[in-house]
Amino acid sequence: MGFLNFSKKGIALALSAQMLLATQAVTMAQAEMLGTDQVIGKYTALANRNALMDEIQREEVQAEIVAMGIDPAEAEARLAALSDAEIATMLTQMENDSAGADILGTLFTVFVILLVTDLLCLTRFFNFTRCVR
Predict the structure, then answer these.
(1) How far apart are CA 77 and CA 55, in angstroms?
(2) Is the pTM of the predicted complex or chain greater than 0.85?
(3) Which among 19, 44, 109, 131 could disulfide-bond with 121, CB atoms 3.0 to 4.6 Å apart, if both were Cys?
(4) Cα(120)–Cα(126) distance, integer angstroms
(5) Residue 87 contacts by C-beta under 8 Å, 6 or more apart in sequence?
(6) Helix axes 84-96, 36-56, angle to 10 degrees
(7) Do 62 and 85 form a contact (C-beta atoms < 8 A)?
(8) 118-to-11, 54, 105, 122 alpha-carbon distances in Å
(9) Cα-Cα-Cα-Cα dihedral of 78, 83, 88, 92, to 10°?
(10) DSSP one-letter code for 97
(11) Residue 70: which region, alpha, beta or left (left: phi > 0; alpha: psi -120 to 50)?
(12) Residue spans per domain, the chain
């Protein structure tokens, strides 16, 4: 009978230890509700990072990077090290700084240059101007 009592106590002790360890592992997990803004922000940042990586892997961009004396692998590593805010800023600058985007400013500058040259009698482009001489 002594062996039977000893084995029951051993089994009870092993099961209670297993139960204790199992509940400790469960209580360490944390769950919280995620807002829609958090999820959208996370996926937007991921999409922005992928868009820049796609741009830097284009053949024309790779050729330009090599022409500047930069290792393409190092450029990709530095791009991967940027924060989400820096990547968003870079994409905003790329969208705003496209070539020829300020056509109105360019036309105004050309008009002013032609007007001044007409007033200085260097050209005769506009009929409504008179030479200063």
Answers:
(1) 14
(2) no
(3) 131
(4) 12
(5) 45, 48, 49, 52, 79
(6) 60
(7) no
(8) 105, 49, 20, 6
(9) -50
(10) T
(11) beta
(12) 1-31, 36-98, 101-133
pLDDT string in tens for the chain (133-residue length): 566 666 788 888 888 888 877 777 655 666 778 888 888 888 888 888 888 888 888 898 888 888 888 888 888 888 888 888 888 888 888 877 766 656 787 888 888 888 888 888 888 888 888 776 6
Name residue 102's amino acid.
Answer: D
The Cα–Cα gap between 38 and 42 comes to 6
> How many residues does this entry show for the chain?
133
Measured CA to CA, the distance from residue 118 to residue 94 in angstroms comes to: 38
Spatial separation of the C-alpha atoms in residues 95 and 111, rounded to whole Å: 27
Q: Which structure tokens are listed for 66?
A: 């090599």
